[in-house]
């Protein structure tokens, strides 16, 4: 469900006309809908009503500060994986006490920064990390609240590059080693170990892997309590998938997900932390791009647009399917043809859609690449010395340029000539 729809023949983001935005800002650009962000957050929050649950938005999915501030105003905490994300969340007005620091490779400096900020806690992924965190916290005279991330060896049945809960993945501590490590942690100064964390992957479209993981989490919580550990919170990660294609069944509704959490974990008397990213922001954003050229290849067309793999990497990296909508509605009812939608970057893997039957587009046409709000702008780069793509946030009939397109001077000016090459 989202708020991108045709009105008077043109695609709108809520009440804002995309052709008008394109004329004002230029293309390509990302466009986010506040109403969609708010709706997704509320659907999830309402599904968990009656459970002691805290929603920590996964900043990695979309870290624009206006998106974060929108979430924070609804009451969300944040899940961050770097000092940079922590700084962004704080700059967007998120209370430190609502921030969880996750990630497999936190540095000493990042730990110290987060402790000084006073974040809620750390999800720790290994014994050496635990030892270092203890050292850093004790050195600062602070106490770090900790959940150990446990790898349940559950197959999330998602794309291999975004599956995180199998034993061969780098994440977490082995399930069978968990009790030993909680015992180790209990003996370390500067730590208050009171939670368990699991995150088995992203874009999960079936509840069964969640059920398996939650059951293992439950068993572990009970086993740890038998050993005298205080388990006060369970961080169940993110990962609930979203519909990317209109011709496929929708993934489980948040209601069903929340009911599963209640069924498996509901009697444990713990606070549940959620780390959703994609399900909140994925369908709340689109990438708008303009057709530069159309050319006939052998057996299919190539529609060459001004957005590329550096702007939206998901099709290239994960063979991800994003629907392509013409911005002008009349194109949708015209002739169609088999085609690739490709960008200007000099790589065969530079595509936004491959071998799709889509309207025959003409140079100058605008296209919307749908479901691009999560892992879109955040994964963009300046490859081929292309400018980072701007971001626009819409609310009703209003819009704001929440990340302007940088200038070429700013981009090229990042380099410093080696002293022996300076001065021509
Ligand atoms: N928590 C942890 C520990 C995570 O690693 C992630 C995502 C999340 C929460 C949020 O997961 P979500 O609810 O968004 O599924 N770039 C990839 C996705 C990478 C996900 C990484 N971790 C993509 O574009 O599909």
Most strands sheet: 9 strands, mixed
> Which bin fits the share of residues in helices?
25-40%
| Secondary structural class | alpha/beta
Poorly predicted spans: none
Overall, the morphology is globular
* Count of helical stretches: 13
Whole-angstrom Rg = 23 Å
The count of DSSP E runs of length 2 or more, i.e. the number of strands, is: 21
What is the terminal separation in angstroms?
56 Å
What molecules are bound to this protein? ligand LLP
Instruction: Report the mean per-residue pLDDT as an integer.
Output: 96
Residue fraction in strands: 25-35%
Q: Tags for this entry?
A:
alpha/beta; 21 strands; nine-stranded mixed β-sheet; binds ligand LLP; 424 residues
Descriptive account of the structure:
29% of the residues lie in helices and 25% in strands. It is built from 13 helices and 21 strands. A hairpin with a 2-residue loop joins strand 20 and strand 21. Helix 5 crosses helix 6. The site of ligand LLP has 22 residues, from helix 10 and helix 11.
Topology:
Elements: E1 4-7, E2 10-13, E3 16-17, H1 18-25, E4 29-33, H2 34-47, E5 53-58, H3 65-73, E6 77-80, H4 83-91, E7 99-101, H5 108-117, E8 121-124, H6 127-140, E9 144-151, E10 173-174, H7 178-186, E11 191-197, H8 207-226, E12 233-235, H9 254-265, E13 271-274, H10 278-281, E14 285-296, E15 301-305, H11 314-318, E16 324-326, H12 329-332, E17 336-342, E18 351-359, E19 366-369, E20 391-395, E21 398-403, H13 408-412
Parallel strand pairs: 4-20, 5-6, 5-13, 6-7, 7-8, 8-9, 9-10, 9-11, 11-12, 12-13, 15-17
Antiparallel strand pairs: 1-2, 2-3, 4-14, 14-15, 14-19, 16-19, 17-18, 20-21
Helix pairs in contact: 2-9, 5-6, 8-9
The structure holds ligand LLP.
Ligand LLP binds next to α10 and α11.
